[in-house]
Amino acid sequence: MGELHIWTQVTNACYQLKHLKVRYRSFYTNKGPVHPNRGYSRLQHMWVVERMMDIAAHKLGFDPVEFRLKNYVQPDQYPYTTVNGCVYDSGDLPLSLRKALGLIDYEDARRLQEQTRGTGKRIGIGIGSTLESGTNNFAQARLVNEHIPFAGNTEGGLVRLGADGSVYAITGGVAFRQGHETTVAQVVADLLGVGYDDVIVHRGGDTALSAQTGFSGSYASQFAVTGIGAIVNAAKQLVGEIQLVAASVLGATPDEIVLEGGLAKVRGDDERALPLDAVAGIVHFAPGTLPPEVAEEVGMVGRAVYRAPFELPDLQRKYGNLTLTYASQIHACVLQIDEETGEVRILRYGMVDDCGTPINLMVIEGQVHGVTVHGISGALFEHFGYDEAGQLTAANFYDYHAATAYDLRSLSYDSVVSPSPFTPVGAKGMGEGGGAPLHAICAAVQDAVGDSGLVLDSFNPPERILSLLRGRDNDKVKVER
């Protein structure tokens, strides 16, 4: 039942839906367990809504681009409250779509599509839109059981200045290749005025490091909000202590002390300055030289907790904000289908993300590439099918083929920056954009197939594409004006 309320974080998907009713059925099965491992983005629900929009556009004779531009949540509507009370914080989906289309040269792709008609090589153009809800409000658990004692979200962080002037940063989040150490070091270095390489980062998992809270961890695309929020708060505490010590030694007030180039110095007077290792040395080895009120105040350790600004949802109406941020990814692709074999070849692929204020551009682009490859792989190569006898048909990595660099062409990337008004540095969580490529591929297949068949499955290998060309599922969906 947990997934039932998790997808409600993105009930509207990217669109201005005013009325929505969903019915669930749960099934027990003896099939092998599966679980999303990368780029999740609530893709079951998001894919269905994208398919609905795309099918409606095709059936009603609209250009899928114009259909989306009219129905996306518009930039001037943010913060946008969805039908179930979630609040989309910021974004510019039309701009993201235009940039994605620019990456694939949309007008030229349409010309190419016309030029290849009747050649046996069909060209399809597809769009995939997805939201990445980040930083859960754990009060959502109460929608399932009102007595569960969860609510809100927190993360801890610790930043300290060692006796030798070394800077240590400890986060409660546990990274698994998302580059948390890089972004933590970058943020701490900026706040303390030291070099990036001068910051030693320890990630979570060890309660002895005193950086954990009950909600610590890396999930729900939240680290850029909760993890960095806690680190920012902790670093600011340490900055305050450094300013207090330096001010007492240099004969200034704390607000006159600035931290730059590894020094604590009086603003506008470079001659009155202390290296940070000197500040640490005084606190650790000569506290008796400090005024008592200062010596009792400082320890060169900042520990803080970031608390996400959530309220409890209305349990009677099942209404309320269930997550804090909404990053987005809009993808566009051009592919070619061989009418004889059903083989798909990707010709052009563009990805545009909006994760608010970027912290590290290389990390962000790497995350976007990662989820894109997983999404494309899920659309064309990876499957977990069973035959009529219940035997798994992809029991090895020959049949279950995860995409590699040999299967893909170069991916073009761009970004949009829509700072979140709800987070410490305007950043949103990201890295869960796998729903965008999953649908971009499906939409491009549909565009290539045209009215011959209807794409109602997210996995479309050559044999399914051949059946689509023969009219598969064409009568299963009715669209009325």
Describe the structure.
By secondary structure, the protein is α+β, with helices and mostly antiparallel strands. It has 2 domains: 2-138 and 315-469, 2-Layer Sandwich (Aldehyde Oxidoreductase, domain 4), CATH 3.30.365.10; 154-307, Aldehyde Oxidoreductase, domain 4, CATH 3.30.365. Helices cover 31% and strands 19% of the residues. The protein contains 12 helices and 13 strands. The strands form 4 sheets. A 4-stranded mixed β-sheet has the order 3-11-12-13, with helices on both faces. A 4-stranded mixed β-sheet has the order 6-5-4-10. A hairpin with a 2-residue loop joins strand 7 and strand 8 (263-266). The mean pLDDT is 91.
Structural class based on helices, strands and sheet pairing: alpha+beta
- Summed over residues and divided by their number, the pLDDT gives a mean of 91
Number of beta-strand segments = 13
Report the CATH superfamily of the largest domain. Answer: Aldehyde oxidase/xanthine dehydrogenase, molybdopterin binding domain
Q: Which overall shape is indicated by the principal axes computed on the Cα atoms? A: elongated
Helix fraction bin: 25-40%
CATH class (first level) name of the largest domain: Alpha Beta
Radius of gyration: 26 Å
What is the third-level CATH name, the topology of the largest domain?
Answer: Aldehyde Oxidoreductase, domain 4
Largest sheet: 4 strands, mixed
Number of helices: 12
Strand order of the largest sheet: 3-11-12-13
Distance separating the two termini: 35 Å
- Strand percentage: 15-25%
Task: Identify the quaternary structure here.
Answer: single chain
Q: Ranges with pLDDT <50 over ≥5 residues?
A: none
State the CATH architecture of the largest domain: 2-Layer Sandwich
Order of helices and strands: HHHEEHHEEEHEHEEEHHEEEHEHH
- Give the number of domains: 2
Keywords: Molybdenum
Domain Aldehyde oxidase/xanthine dehydrogenase first molybdopterin binding: 10-72
Domain Aldehyde oxidase/xanthine dehydrogenase second molybdopterin binding: 100-407
Protein name: Xanthine dehydrogenase family protein molybdopterin-binding subunit
